[in-house]
Every structure is written in structure tokens, then in C-alpha cells.
Write a structure and sequence with these properties.
alpha/beta; globular; 200 residues; Spore Coat Polysaccharide Biosynthesis Protein SpsA, Chain A; 5 helices; 7 strands
């Protein structure tokens, strides 16, 4: 399929997910929140790709394909995230998609409860006009990145997990002479202060 929607997530293992929320929720509570956020994101993604020429893939870590599929179900391809920092994992996921003839690829995480089908539609539509689309997160990162072609240089020299990610990515876009579009800014749920954004 010419469009590809990639979902990056972790299996909901207590103590290994949402670690910054463990002081507020406990390890089991943080894992339960992660599970609900990921399932919500997958439901949105599945609804979006229905009837579109868009392939859905789950890129997971923290377990194996059988466990990931047993949790999130059929109707998607499953790939283990490669080793390395987040930048390397993102770059390789995009590279695999473009190597298999995808023309527009959008990648999302599972931390954003307000992600909608409308935003996903905006992202894919934007890639018909610009090189890169970004969904800014309120914490200075991004909840979505989409590419019209492979751009590995966008994912190097980024201080992942900090409030500088979006700013540094925009600087990389400028250095490479690329065009981009910003989507609506949404809140991630990563820290205790973010819990007010989660009503599910």
C-alpha cells in the first residue's frame, strides 16, 4: 500500500513503561495507563485505515510478536523495534516502509489521548504538499512525524526525551532544506503533571 501508518509502542510490562508516572500511580497503575493509551491509539488507527489504501503496522518493544499480537490483535503488521536510541529506531522504521514502496509514511506514539482520525487525515494530506509533517506535543516533543520520502538526517543529534526535540527537529528540517507542516498541538501523558489530560 502506498500509505503506511506506523504505531510505536511498548508492551505494558509493569516497571518498564511510563516510569516517570510510577511515583504517582505505582508500577502497575502506570502500566495500566500505558495499556489504555496504546489500545485507544490502535482503535483510532484501525478506524482510520479502514477503507483507505493505508497499511497499519505496530512497532513494539518489551516483548515478542506473539505477545504484541495477543495484546493488540490482528489487522496490523508487527515489527520489533531495532536496537539503538529513538532516532535510530525511527529512521529504520521509515527506511523499511520506503523500501517496500510506501509513498507517504506517518508514525505516531501511544502517549497522546487526543489523537484523532481527523489529525491523521491532515497528516497524510499534508504529505502530498510538503516533505515533513509534525504533530507538536505540549511538552516540546512531537506525537506524530510523517515523511514523503526517507529522511534519516532528521533523527540524529536530537536530545530525545527532552523539551528540545521539536525545536531541534525543526532546525534539522531547515538544514536539509525541507518543507514542513505543523499539525495541532496536543498533550502527551508522560509525567504526573500531564495526568489532567487523561480522562479515559
Amino acid at each position: 500500500m502506498r500509505e503506511r501508518l506506523l504505531v510505536f509502542t511498548r508492551l505494558p510490562v509493569a516497571g518498564q513503561v511510563k516510569t516517570r508516572l510510577i511515583p504517582a500511580l505505582g508500577a502497575a497503575g502506570a502500566a495500566a495507563l500505558h495499556r489504555r493509551l496504546a489500545e485507544r491509539t490502535l482503535a483510532t488507527a484501525r478506524s482510520f485505515v479502514g477503507g483507505r489504501p493505508t497499511g497499519l503496522e505496530v512497532w513494539y518493544t518489551g516483548g515478542n510478536a506473539r505477545a504484541a499480537r495477543g495484546w493488540l490483535g490482528d489487522g496490523a503488521g508487527y515489527h520489533r523495534q531495532p536496537a539503538g536510541d529513538l532516532g535510530r529506531r525511527l529512521a529504520l522504521a521509515f527506511a523499511k516502509s520506503f523500501a517496500t514502496k510506501a509513498r507517504r509514511v506517518v508514525l505516531v506514539g501511544t502517549d497522546c489521548p487526543d489523537l484523532t482520525e481527523e489529525i491523521l487525515a491532515q497528516a497524510f494530506a499534508g504529505l502530498a504538499m510538503v516533505d515533513v509533517v509534525l504533530g507538536p506535543a505540549a511538552d516540546g516533543g512531537y506525537y506524530l512525524v510523517g515523511l514523503a520520502r526517507e529522511q534519516p538526517g532528521l533523527f540524529v543529534d536530537i536530545d530525545w526525551g527532552t523539551g528540545l526535540v521539536l525545536e531541534q527537529t525543526r532546525a534539522a528540517i531547515a538544514r536539509h532544506g525541507l518543507s514542513y507542516q505543523l499539525l495541532p498541538c496536543l498533550a502527551d501523558v508522560d509525567r504526573p503533571v500531564d495526568l489532567a489530560a487523561w480522562t479515559g
